[in-house]
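Ticket #4471: structure output looks truncated?

Reporter: J.K.
Steps to reproduce: submitted the chain below (154 residues) through the standard prediction queue, then opened the result file.
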Amino acid sequence: MKYWDKKLTREQLDKKLSRFKPVLNTPIPNGGWVKTIREALGMSTYDLAKKTKLDQSRISRIEAAEVKQEIKLSTLQKMADGLGVKFVYGFVPEEDLESIVREQASGIAQKRLNRIDHFMKLELQGLSDEEQEKALSDLTDKILVEEPKNFWNQ
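Returned output as attached by the reporter:
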């Protein structure tokens, strides 16, 4: 996929994901979501076990596993079904995806420019701040379009 296609994909995905940004500030309850919702519904571990066709002791282990972040997505889905709620899973970037990619390209460009500028200064041909800024912007754009194979390894 070419840069412009990827950029369009990132922009469309950013638009879709932006509506979930308020969720970023929602802390996970101390006891985990399963236990918190179960208790809010007034449901015992026995009741949830019956609804999910699991042993009551398994429900307690599931709740503990959720708190430790050692739980399978399929188990969370089963718990949601038993609680009568929807299970939602996803990633919500803190900044837009295009900014993340541009920041990476800019970092690569800055490293390249630092090497070039060092040698130019040795020959008394260093770039002015304005020239460096323009060169950084141009090189960042070039890296974004060419996207080297080791883009994320630098």
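Triage note (M.O.): checked the attachment and the full token line is present. Helices lie at 3-17, 33-40, 45-52, 56-67, 73-83, 97-122, 129-146.
Status: closed, working as intended.
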